[in-house]
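Please check what follows.
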Amino acid sequence: MTEALIEKSELTRACAASEQSLLVSSVVESSDLYEPDSVVWKYDRSGGVSQWEDRKVAAHVERIISSADSHDYVVMSSEGEVIFDVFSGGAIERMTGAGTWIDGAKGHGRMLALARIEDTLYSSGNGGQIYVRSQPNQWRILTNDLLFDPDAHARLSKTAPPTDDPRFLQWLMESRSKRPRNISFHDINGLSHDAIYLCGVEGTKPVLCFWDGSALHELKVHLEEAALTGIHIEHADSVWICGREGVLLHGSYARGFTPVNLRQQLNLFHMITPYRGKLVLPSSVRPGGLFEFDPGTSDLRRFSPALPKLRGEYIFYAGAVGDVLWVVGQKDIFRFDGSEWERIEHPRL
């Protein structure tokens, strides 16, 4: 690994596997948005000694999750590459057809989310993509119901008059009903193979869906605009969904979803993690920071005690294991043990 690759880096994704261990990915600060080269780092403080291990991967890391036994991790790229046992040179699998620039991509777009449901891996992303790993090295589209059709989009675009043509505005209005749907599923989570939630956005409209094992159902969301970004399933009748514009929804497929009455705000909530009876939500912008929500009182406030001063511009991850809460940002890693925060020093930030 060259010094140029790791000297000026920023963190991009994270996953907490235990109270003592954490995985993060990093890219060079000056790299392009979809730069394929990343570094995956494992931090472990077992036995009272802090240790770092790193591996370079030729992939744009989009999601990291713990394996079933929590002793290793699964890394997914935005192009639909899935790396198992990354620190022991494990296998790399491909979601055939996924991605944007990789060979075999069908034009549906990037993969955004990965989840383990009943020991089976599911993934979702741009263009209404939903994949399931039916067996080792075999990924298939779960359903075509909302899959984006790039060919139909291209054919419709060819009928457009020039933008300076007086007929263009009329074509634009009439073509809306003919355009193929293009949904981005930002997260996927479920209790079982026949109870899976997906959330995301279509244009500026929130999208929330439920897979019942045989069909995909699009659920009503009582919001005009918002991208839904994260799912936390408390139990079958209590599911929490967060998103942009400070959105927090609560409900279930059976009883529907309603917005939680939070104060007006513009936070971009990335995810929800339960911790000590509350829901913790990291936000990167407007105003950003770490928040906690009390389901009993519907009280939303900044997490207390407050995070130490950030070295980077934002945070994007919060994950709880037991009594420990891990928080990761662009240039920061923090560990909260229930009483105080500890800054974890990364060797290359």
Observations:
- Residues 1-6 have pLDDT under 50 and may be disordered.
- The chain has three helices and 28 strands.
- Residues 150-157 form the longest helix (8 residues).
- The longest strand covers residues 184-192.
